[in-house]
């Protein structure tokens, strides 16, 4: 098993996008419903309305900090239907 270096990638997030990314981080983590320690990190619980913001955060963080294991677990079923039509 190879290990990934613990190093950020400078410039992975373009300079003009960084202020908005840092604002997003503050907004998300200030509004987290719950924080749980894990064996290898932390789990954060967000309101369902934050899903797109969480996905945007993860997309950018994966570019600049590839050593972080960022996931959105899908532990609930998604039901699709035609609403009785």
Q: Largest sheet at a glance?
A: 2 strands, antiparallel
Global Rg: 16 Å
List the total number of helices: 2
Strand content: 5-15%
Head-to-tail CA distance between termini: 52 Å
Structural class: alpha+beta
Task: Please characterize this protein's 3D structure.
This protein has 85 residues and is of the alpha+beta class. It is built from two helices and two strands. The protein is globular, with a radius of gyration of 16 Å. The N and C termini lie far apart (52 Å). The mean pLDDT is 86.
Topology:
Blueprint lengths: L17 H13 L3 E5 L2 E5 L5 H14 L21
Antiparallel strand pairs: 1-2
Helix pairs in contact: 1-2
Descriptive terms for the model:
single chain; 32% helix; alpha+beta; 2 helices; two-stranded antiparallel ribbon; globular; 85 residues
Question: Care to give the gist of this entry?
Answer:
Strand 1 (34-38) and strand 2 (41-45) form a beta hairpin.
